[in-house]
């Protein structure tokens, strides 16, 4: 197996440029890499290239990054076809598509044939079985989980998911490259929910149940967590960033895998999803994001509560 030195890597291929994908791309650019990206949704690609540029403009204005915005954004190479991922020369493929196992298995069956045999596969899954996807790719020894926290360019933690068939060289390479782009990796076994969602999803469910029982408001729950537990944002605002639909999918997957009642989805989350409230990306969730710089907590005591 030919693995480059982490310090010699110049580019990464990225499959998926949606909610998580474009923040991963921002983080990789910030870490000095070029990115070759493919997504079938061309309109979304155009929108998210603009968002990436906006992130760098904001970081520059705040003094948290001192590069040149236009030069950096030009390091995004948008590919026209999925097959082009296999021709870009990047030693790593990062997959960041919707959290659906059937979808991902199909993608990996195709990418396993498209990508060069030495390409290392990273998946951003937050809960799905790494070994099933690695087997579908035909390169289980070079398949590893790299679960970034949303938004990846601002959150430093990356959950590294290993499994028994993983090459130690691939693990060492991944840890070093993740550190090189300014992240703090931590390792977990391939267990349902890994570390983060094993604890986070029951926590979200607990506070959503409190909200649904009208024992506390959105604002008070998040204020309590920020002021008393030191959280930079409350759990309900975090859920808006994750997405209501993604939260439901992860909880349902963990419930199937473990039969643990802690993962039973509250009815309120289903009502929100069915009403089209998917958090930050749709402009409405536990907060009204009409003004993204000053979101307002939804008062679920009033008529804003979704019907269902």
Number of helices: 11
Q: Please state the structural category.
A: alpha/beta
- Please give the number of β-strands: 10
* Percent in helix: 40-55%
Tell me the CATH superfamily of the largest domain. NAD(P)-binding Rossmann-like Domain
Write a brief structural summary.
By secondary structure, the chain is α/β, with parallel strands linked by helices. 43% of the residues lie in helices and 14% in strands. The protein has helices at 21-30, 42-62, 69-73, 101-114, 130-137, 168-180, 196-212, 218-229, 235-242, 244-258, 267-274, and strands at 11-15, 34-38, 76-78, 92-95, 120-123, 143-148, 157-162, 184-189, 287-288, 296-297.
Give a description of the structure:
The protein is of the alpha/beta class. The protein has two domains: 179 residues, 3-Layer(aba) Sandwich (Rossmann fold); 103 residues, N-(1-d-carboxylethyl)-l-norvaline Dehydrogenase, domain 2, CATH 1.10.1040. The protein is 43% helix and 14% strand. An eight-stranded mixed β-sheet has the order 3-2-1-4-5-6-7-8, with helices on both faces. A two-stranded antiparallel sheet has the order 9-10. Strand 5, helix 5 and strand 6 form a beta-alpha-beta unit. It is globular.
